[in-house]
Amino acid sequence: MKKLLIFALFAGLLAxxxxxxxxxxxxxxxxxxxxxxxxxxxxxxxxxxTNCLSCHSAKDYASTGGNINLEDFTMVQLLALQGIxxxxxxxxxxxxxxxxxxxxxxxxxxTKIKIWIDHGALNN
Length: 124
Ligand code: HEC
Fold this sequence. Notes:
With about 120 residues, this protein is mainly α. It folds into 2 domains: about 1-30; about 30-120, no CATH class. Helix content is about 55%, strand content about 0%. The chain has 7 helices and no strands. Helix 2 (about 40-50) crosses helix 7. Bound molecules: heme C. Heme C binds near residues 85 and 88.
């Protein structure tokens, strides 16, 4: 009886950990977020257009976007590979939280950014 209880506890712990990890990695899995075929042009650019280009456009980035042009792929890729892009959109304490002075973007968008970075931050 005791053994069974310990086993149950342990299994529960393991399941708990696994669930936590999945949640952290891809927070919006199973919540109606379509993460199939994530690409830069189809998935990431629209997120920038909706949430970021008001400050980070090619036209205005020098005055409103802290010199970060999110319409310049080379710059975006560099920020992505250095972890700065993900840190900013997840409000990681090492980066300036983005959108500046705004709430975090939705978890589905954050998940897509993560998937795109995990696959090499390609210009696809
Ligand atoms: C209201 C204007 C504004 C919006 C909207 C905005 N940003 Fe920024 N962003 C800035 C400014 C200004 C900086 C320069 C650093 C600072 O002032 O915090 C910056 C800095 C950054 C940085 C560098 C962060 C660092 O830690 O060095 C990244 C990456 C970034 N923005 C990405 C984004 C993304 C992605 C979005 C949309 C989800 C976004 N920004 C929306 C104004 C904005």
